[in-house]
Design brief:
The chain is an alpha+beta fold and 256 residues long. 45% of the residues lie in helices and 11% in strands. The protein folds into two domains: 164 residues, NADH Oxidase (3-Layer(aba) Sandwich); 46 residues, no CATH class. It has twelve helices and four strands, in the order ααβααβααβαβααααα. The structure holds flavin mononucleotide (FMN).
Amino acid sequence: MTNSDTTVGKTDSETIRVLKNRRSIRKYADTPVSDAQVEAILSAAMRAPTSSNLHAYSVIVVRDPETKVQLAVPCGNQKHINDCPVFLAFCADLTRIEAAFQRYGHNLDDNNLEMGLVASIDASLVGMSAYVAADSLGIQGVMIGAIRNKPEVIADILGLPKHVYAVFGMCLGYPAEAPKQKPRMPVPGIVHREKYDATAALQSIDPYNAELKDHYVSVGKETSDDSWTNEVVAKFSTRPRDGLRAALKARGFDFT
Ligand SMILES: Cc1cc2nc3c(=O)[nH]c(=O)nc-3n(C[C@H](O)[C@H](O)[C@H](O)COP(=O)(O)O)c2cc1C
């Protein structure tokens, strides 16, 4: 990224160092994560901005091994869900908004895409804040999008009422691995100055294919020359979670 500023200013901080060192952690030490730590993480995370002060999210803290075993199944049996000391489910939650509506005779059943987006963005912001807060204490983990594989099964396990769905989960614990960081796309392809640069955006693909391939080779993972584009097409060209819109509609979120 070229910088037109003449004054540089501070460019390093503890938070920047935490963010720059971040990587997904899927193996956990036996060291417990205390309730006080979870509370510290979540109360800090709740300082995240929330659209129109709606607080359109809830977080379910799961420690019970049996519940984690149940949750892992619809999430494709991801072992780290069973193994992590703490699993957090970040949910979009319109129930309090519904209650406010009802006080004045309004009905939330006729909600639109914006309500679902607002709640999903709220849940995402608080989730990422929790992730960073945890990391600042040495507690790391991985987000679990697979929690959207079967929203109704997850809702049963977690006792989620209508107008609540789990946007993503998060395994947390003290790390028992130090995986090499996965490279990121080059900044100039992602960050644009003043106007979107379509050429720069697309020019980042081939260098990233090469860099990701080198990364996978260095960690012993099977790959190909066009590693990123291949992965994207393999995972997303087949309309994954095609039933999600209908499943979320049944949970009271209208994403049409
Ligand atoms: C919303 C979201 C959902 C994710 N879901 C999963 C998941 O279900 N299982 C998993 O192992 N990793 C999951 N990840 C982790 C990504 O695969 C990971 O962040 C990405 O490959 C980059 O690697 P890094 O986090 O180590 O840099 C998810 C990440 C995000 C942001």
